Amino acid sequence: GAIPGDYVMLSVSDTGAGMTDEVKARLFEPFFTTKPLGKGTGLGLATCQTIVQQSGGHIGVHSEVGKGTTFKAYFPRVEQPLEVAARPIQAGPLPRGTETLLVVEDEPAVRHLACSILEAQGYTVLCASNGQEGLRAVREHKGSPIRLVVTDVIMPLMGGKVMTEWLKTTHPGLKILFTSGYTDDAIAQHGVLDAGVEFLAKPYTPATLARKVRELLDC
Ligand SMILES: Nc1ncnc2c1ncn2[C@@H]1O[C@H](COP(=O)(O)OP(=O)(O)OP(=O)(O)O)[C@@H](O)[C@H]1O
Ligand SMILES: [Mg+2]
Q: Around 5, how many Cα atoms within 13 Å sit in the side-chain half-sphere?
């Protein structure tokens, strides 16, 4: 039921497991997932489809079991000249620093991003993928003292809250920045955080992370 006209097409392919016709028939259905409990929400493609449809486009899928899948997103081509995008608020260089920080995050992509943003701003960054690893990293650290911890809240083995309780017993002046994607998170909901403890909601931008870290270090 696509409207005739010019489209810009974005194609994404993989060489993964592919899909059976049964799965293909339901893949855009919200909450439909073949991933194990706790792994997928089944909202990935429903969200993609909604976004593309809101732009007046549509998504096509081609998949072969054992070979892979190709998604093609079609967006209506805009003919009118575009207005130059407004300058982002608070543009300008991001605050830098030379302190040593610890980043604890279980999602590898988010962990790498957070670590490389902060390293690019001049900080020395230790990275860990859960609370237990974080405690070990602090214990084994030899260089200049760790000033601030950026940590996810919910992680396997040990979450951010328990980890920071332990850290505070050995490092009383340590600043803590919790990050979480769960808006109903106990920490976010609490509203009241101890001095030197802040909360940054995910997803965050490189700029908000860099500013929040500097702000907390300076307070
Ligand atoms: N590239 C793909 N290759 C094979 N199967 C896929 C692919 N993308 C989606 N599917 C199938 O469609 C289902 C629904 O996809 P969707 O992205 O909506 O949810 P999900 O991937 O299961 O969960 P989430 O996106 O929250 O991680 C998947 O569980 C999977 O069975
Ligand atoms: Mg998905």
A: 14
